[in-house]
Write a structure and sequence with these properties.
Layout lengths: L1 H7 L2 H28 L2 H82 L26 H10 L6
Length: about 160
């Protein structure tokens, strides 16, 4: 319309064309700006990819956590079984050591009793009835005395002296 108005030298056609062109150009600019601002197809594509990746990581995390819990449960069961086996083995060893200790003790008691009986038999523990006490023995006759020992004992008794 603007070009038609210029060829015909008609101002009304030129102004009318300009007035119609400006809103159309503005409308095109607004549509382009709106599309540029509001068009989120690329962002939505990136967001969808990130969500898929996050969902995959979440699934892997849940699977890894379940596997870890299963492994920990298995380890706990294995450790409990190992502890029970070790306790049973220790109890068996302890019982064997108690039996061995009792056998050694019985052997030592028998050997001790045999040695004691042999010592009694050899007279090492028997009281000595033939040995007199620790007395100082005096000679039956002292040199220079002509008395008999019985006379000397009687004399000592007469004077209040206790003698042998």
């Amino acid at each position: 319309m603007i070009i038609y108005g210029l060829f015909r030298h008609d101002l009304a056609w030129s102004l009318g064309g300009a007035c119609l062109t400006m809103p159309v150009l503005t409308l095109f600019a607004l549509v382009a700006v709106r599309r540029w601002i509001v068009d989120t197809r690329d962002e939505r594509r990136v967001l969808a990819a990130a969500q898929r990746q996050a969902e995959g990581e979440r699934t892997r995390y849940i699977a890894a956590q379940a596997a870890l819990e299963n492994e920990q449960g298995r380890l706990r069961r294995d450790m409990a079984a190992e502890r029970a086996q070790i306790n049973a083995q220790l109890k068996a060893e302890r019982d064997a050591l108690v039996v061995e200790f009792e056998e050694r003790r019985a052997t030592l008691v028998c050997e001790t009793m045999e040695a004691t009986v042999l010592m009694f038999k050899d007279g090492k523990f028997a009281p000595d009835s033939t040995t007199p006490g620790n007395l100082i023995r005096l000679a039956d006759r002292l040199p220079g005395q002509g008395f008999a020992p019985d006379v000397e004992r009687e004399r000592s008794r007469e004077h209040g002296v206790v003698g042998p």
